[in-house]
Amino acid sequence: MWIPTEHEKYGVVLASFRGTVQHGLPLEIGDTVQILEKCEGWYRGFILKNPNIKGIFPCSYIHLKNAHIKNKGQFETVIPVEDSVITEMTSTLRDWGAMWKQLYVKNEGDLFHRLWHVMNEILDLRRQVLVGHLTHDRMRDVKQHITARLDWGNEQLGLDLVPRQEFSMVDPDEISVTELYRLMEHRHRKKETPTAASTHHLFVHMKSLMSANLGEELEVFFHIYDGRENRPLSERFFVRLNKSGLPKSPEKTERQCTLFVDLGSSDLRKDVYIVVHIIRIGRMGAGEKKNQCSVQYRRPFGCAVVSIADLLTADSKDDHLLKVYACNTESEWSQIHENIIKKANSRYNLSGSNTGLAVALQLLHGDIEQLRREYMVLFTRGVSITRKLGFSDVIMPGEMRNDLYVALEKGEFEKGGKSVAKNVEITVYVLDIDGQILKGHVAAGSGEPGADEYHSLVLYHNNSPRWAEQIKLPIPVDMFRGSHVRFEFRHCSTKDKGEKKLFGYSFVPLMQEDGRTLPDGTHELIIHKCEENTNLADCSRYLKMPFSKANLPSNNQTLKGAKESFWITSFLCSTKLTQNGDMLDLLKWRAHPERINDSLSKLKEIDGSEIVKFLQDTLDTLFGILDESSQRYGLKVFDSLVHIINLLQDSKFQHFKPVMDTYIESHFAGALSYRDLIKVLKWYVDRIVDAEHQDHIQQVLKASEYIFKYIIQSRRLFSLATGGQNEEEFRVCVHELFMSIRFFLSQENKGATPVAQTQAVFLRTFPAIYGELLKIFAVREVAGFVRETLGSLPAAAQADCPLEAVKLQCIAKTVEGQLYINPESRCILLPVVLRVLQGHMQEQKDLVMCARILTSMLSLIKKEENSTAEPVVSEEVELIVESLLGVLLRTILEISNRPQPAGPSMRFQFQDVTGEFVACLLALLRQMSDRHYQKLLQAFSSKDNLRDFLLQIFTVFRILIRPEMFPKDWTVMRLVTNNVIITTVLYLSDALRKNFLSDKFDYKVWDSYFYLSVIFINQPCLQLESFSPSKRKKILEKYGDMRVMMGCEIFSMWQNLGEHKLNFIPAMIGPFLEVTLVPQPDLRNVMIPIFHDMMDWEQRRSGNFKQVEAKLIDKLDSLMSEGKGDETYRELFNSILLKKIERETWRESGISLIATVTRLMERLLDYRDCMKLGEVDGKKIGCTVSLLNFYKTELNKEEMYIRYIHKLYDLHLKAQNYTEASYTLLLYDELLEWSDRPLREFLNYPMQSEWQRKEYLHLTIIQNFDRGKCWENGIILCRELADQYESYYDYRNLSKMRMMEASLYDKIMDQQRLEPEFFRVGFYGKKFPFFLRNKEFVCRGHDYERLEAFQQRMLNEFPHAIAMQHVNQPDQTIYQADAQYLQIYAVTPIPESQDVLQRDGVPDNIKSFYKFNHIWRFRYDRPFHKGTKDKENEFKSLWVERTTLTLVQSLPGISRWFEVDKRELVEVSPLENAIEVIENKNLQLRTLITQCQNRQMQNINPLTMCLNGVIDAAVNGGLARYQEAFFVKDYIMNHPEDGDKIGRLRELMFEQAHILEYGLAVHEKFVPQDMRPLHKKLVDQFHLMKSSLGIQEFPAYVRASPVHFTNGSPRTCRNSVPNIISPDGGVGVGGIGGGRGLTRRSYPAVNRYSSSSLSSQASNEVSNITGQSESSDEVFNMQPSPSTSSLSSNHSASPNVTSSAPSSARGSPQMAEKHKHSRENSCLSPRERPVSAIFPNPLDPAQRAPPHQIGDAALPRSDPNLSAPDKVRPTPSSWSLDSVKEGAPSFSDSVGRLLCPPVPPRPPYSGSSAKSKRSQSPVSVSRSPQKTTVPPFTPSPTECQSSGLVSSSPVLSGSYSSGISSLSRCSVSEASGTELSLPPPPPPATDNHHHHHHHPPYPMPPPLPSSSSSSSGNNSDEPGARRENKTPPPYSVYERNNPRRPVPLPHSLSIPPQADPPALPPKPHQLRTGSMKLEGTSDPRVPRPRPLPRKVSQL
Question: What is the rounded CA–CA span in Å between residue 1850 and residue 1544?
């Protein structure tokens, strides 16, 4: 049975639990769990990380912890009972853990490792805390370390700043907001500047001396030396080393470690050094033999120096190895360190190459007590303290110090008859008053204990030695009097047994008779001669003698003139002895009462440090004098006291204030002094107003704090002593004193008079007095004094009065002081404080101070809340609200609207003030209860005031919500702010309802209210979804989801509005929409219904809700693009609103609105997903196109449409789709007209006229068409621009335009373009974005992109998609699948403009454009067998299934892909198939023969191969198979309807034979010698073939046709083959198989096709039929198996299967790249090709480049891989014309003659079309020399023949005519480059649409001999018909009257040559659907979107 647990509530998982049992909860080690119930060894509960999943787990896996339970029951929260720091650590580490892994993923290695290190440190520290064995101090330190690390990590990871007090997190509800702000601010600031410590200490640890020449003991002295003033700063630290250079007593660390204490910050500079002197103890000369003498001398060894500044930079832990130098001449020993510092290197050198001193040096900062705590180890191990010479910067009281420092400077000695100078050693003794040597009072330095004597250095042979050795004499004070120091001089002989002989002495007494000690400074001592030690035994004998030359009596000339002298420098550092006589006089006042007056006066001149030294004594003296004779000296003593008190204000002595405090507390004994002090003070105060000079009085008032301290303490002593006598009298005195003070304060001042300054001085010290008064008076009484006193101040007279600021400071101190904290006194003081504050804040002055005061006031209120003082607090809040709330709001508004000052320092100040005022406001609002709000609202006298207040507070709240209000990591503060705001808003919304509804409705207030609520909900810090789960949980527990509360509030307020809602429609739609987009389901459910309400009201008002719709759509776009909203929102929006409107009368329109908006959301969401970083361009573009069309067609939103045009344009440019970019920008261009209408600034366009913008767009588009090699399209625009320039007579630009146009023509002829491949892609399955789902598209591939590459690219773009392996249409299961399926295969374009393609004279460069531009339809063939398959002859049953796809827009267009609009399926019978195959091969042969004849081929190989292929195949049964299949009786009987076709096939076979014969003749003429045998073989095989066909002589009708070959133009024939030539030159039947073997030589994979067996032929044929005319490199990709006709053999990918046919194609090396495209076209099986699909037949002479261009011969045939461009470099020439001449009655000529009047000189075949085209346009006629309309025309065969063409069959003539008529109309446009189709006016009757499809040129190599032209076999008229409905009529520009001038436009549109176009920012251009879609857009069959309303359908 499960029982709820009582105490077992919280635990930690000890081992991972898999949770495999039923209801088991999987646990990971370390998880924390909350336990709900238990049952027999199992618990039920949940993991705190994921509270929603509950389950069971074994008790044994859990370690229980104690925990508090908050709000027991269902929603209880459990908080473990442990140190809050640990809790925080645990949760923080968990948060970090997740982020830490992310750092690794994001590759932020540096932070990753640092964080890892810190996390480990924290875990270590956490262990220490948990174990709990730490001392209190250590625990503090550990916590400090932990919190420092937590804060560091949070800052690095961008997490929130945690406010703390005493290391633990603060609950923001427990402290006032002002306090919270202060903590946050403090933590925030702390990051900025750590305060520098003022005292520093140097730790020195002497390790060792390394040197080669040791062997004697050493003494090492360290001291700190000031290089600037050349004096030591510290005493010496002294270490003894043994003979091996190590410290002598290693066990005693204090002998080798020291702390140089009390260095001031000023001492840490470059020129302060640590100087080390090293002395050896031993023989006189370093090299003397041992044992020569036993006497030891102290001799110089070396010196080392290091600058303190080096330690600041160096890593303090390292040991330093100091170089040791010795001096060159020993006499300079005293200056060696100065020389080293000055780098005077002639004076010293290294003392041995490898001598070094190893020392550890470390600078420590902070005061010594702090160091004792931090570096306990140092102090416990022992360290000696080395003091500064003199007192430190700050003299600490209680310091006992009495050190006399004596430096042995130098001596002057006589030779004494010796030839060499002496070796002098001094011995120093201290003797007391009795002449006894004081033991242990001579110290060489710290570190070693004091000795009885000191021996100086010995300098060798030197009569004026300089020792510069400093010793310390720490003599106790009581022994000072009468003691003296004696210096004995001895000569150390190196000969006579090395004894030391005394030859003189000096002495100096330490104290003078008057009690003053020896003054500091240098003293020249007299050397008294003496050679016997005994003479010195009795010191009384010599003490009477003079000791120094300075105080010799003038008559003692002998001593004065003595040569010998000895100089010492003494320096006393004593807290007890003074060298100042005046001081002594004062202290001994009782001895000389007559000098009191004098001494008191002199006190002011005495040096401060002397006074503070004897502070206590001095004060005792003063009060002693006061007690004894107060009448006489009262005033003087008072002044002296004031002087001393003010002396302590000085920074040097400020630390003595505590001394004075201690003195007052513990030592002061003047129980009677208070009367005199009060009396004198009052006397001074009374004189203030009249006094001339205020200086002295100001000094007195400055000291008033301490004077009061003395008065109060004195009174307390008196009361204690007397049991409280004279109490009343004392009170009266104090009251009178305050009366005087109030009187002087109440003086009105004009400006800065002295009195005003005095008032200021008093106010500064006044708050310090409160505490003293409280010691005697009751709280209320003191509060009374203060209130009266402050109240007596004059009201501010002038704004700039300095007193005002001081008054505020005084109040600030009052508020911060003890007195104000007490609630009793607070209620007395509050009104005064508020009055002053209010005044200042209204004036906006001293805001920093005001903020400080307010902060303090409000911090107190919070603390009191829980005590009994509730009503008092409430009253206070009321007072503050009443007087300050309004002002506070105004102040915040003022400050935040003020421009921020420039300087950073100023800015901080401002920032702080704003922050502090905000905190105050929040604190105040948080304190306000219901009652306060009611009072506040009732207090407004009128509605207007209330309205102003509400507007103000709402505005302030909006400011508080601004992200820049607080630093970004202050989430805690932000949440508190929001909590306060929402509470306040809930109170105020009542006021809004009551006062501003119905008749008193006030739009402004309501608007402000809604606006605030919306911003509130949208704040980043409330978007809980973006937080980590733990943070979200914390916030929800503490505050709930404030967005939902505010949402409900908005909703209820909205409902209250009634008909006033109309005021907010449509204004509030955007804001409310933004709120509903917040991903919080409850909020959405509350807010979405408001839209229904809006629709309803709008419907009532205006009968529709267009406004609502428009606004929704506008806002959705901008909001969703910012990343708001999601799929669930779309569904919610849809479902909630649909449900809401079910019952409405306006349901229908409502549903349509909701549908539109929902569809828009779908597209916007797709768009947003696609625009994410890292998405591929293709998706982005597709998505943008979908959205753009939606805006245009469904929403008719022109502005959004244009915006997306530009977004799309930018995407295209980025992806380098220049052609698409141009088409896109055209969409915008077409929306504009050539008018002067001014346009506003928009996107990146400046303000300009419509004409200028359109011109700019034109230029940009031309530039992009040029980059995309779509020059034909550019030309049209150039012409249009040129027309504009011409109409304005702007000839300069006109000329540029014409030049540009010309350059584009040149580029067409000279530059190579690649032919793109086209792929059909189907996207199936629900997982695709909306704009792709279950649709099929045709996509234009990138340059050089083959099927594999394309497929791979698509799979990369959709990484989750599955590629389908078949080409059949998928079924419903796939459509509905929750997956992504891609079906991709290649398709062949069916060009629209056949006219140009059929012309023989048109160069391939030009034709290539028409083959691949403006393509609407694409074809895909799939062979299959119907019925039984004949093993012997596959052809009998080989059918082809041909799919034609029609697109919604032609390619290329604004996107690389367009959706398929409809698909048509036809089946091609085996017979038709055979006809196509042979026709194609015939065409190919003809082309090659012609080229060869016209010498257009440098290399005859392609022809050889082609002939070989055809003949070989025919001989081996190719044609025979057809004969067997179709010419047998069975077939003819069964298919009587096929009679004509069989005839046609027979004709074609004969024709093929005829062409072959002719070809062989030509071949013979050109064949090179080495190929003769092959030629011979071909001729033999040909005869075989003829006989197999049964042809002896060709029938006449067949023969007729080739006759006309003579002129080298088999065009006639070509046209005679109705467009049935399969692109790669479908092999004539004979051409099918065998030819391959040869052709393929260079392609390894080819051989599988080479067999001449039947099956291979068949399969080849098959693939050929399918149009797989790919260059054989493709073979590698797909390798269709030769035998089958199954899918695999052609794999739907025309580009991937080699076509078996065009042998030339295969063989020609050039084929490699170039032909892909033409070949691809060939894939279209014949049926599909419109006439014009007879592609430029590369073999026509007229089209071929002159021979030298082709380069066939030039290139080795075996290099199929040379890229096309390398191979063909067409040179511009006049070849097109020539070739026409050559082919005398050439096709185009004849056509021209038949159809047209003469043509103006354009390229020959450009003759007619543009003009005929224009024939419909009223304007243009005038320019066209041609007849205006050409009736559709079908010449009869005879006519054709008459013009020199032989038509061999009726079918043929039909095809002619259609070709011709189309040509006739098309040629100009063809020539003119692209014609851009515009949305046509209704198609005219003539069929002039063909030309309308020249699609933008595609980069496509000039066609090669090999590319066989393909044509489609629809009978002649069908293609015409089909094209008819596709192509728009001639460029409609011609149909518009040009507003500017009557001049007809030039032939076609012209576009400015970008001679030097302005730099154009890339702008997308919206191609309007109908206009220059370089695809014929208007197909009457396809519903096309209507152009946007304001449109002119021309460009």
Answer: 11
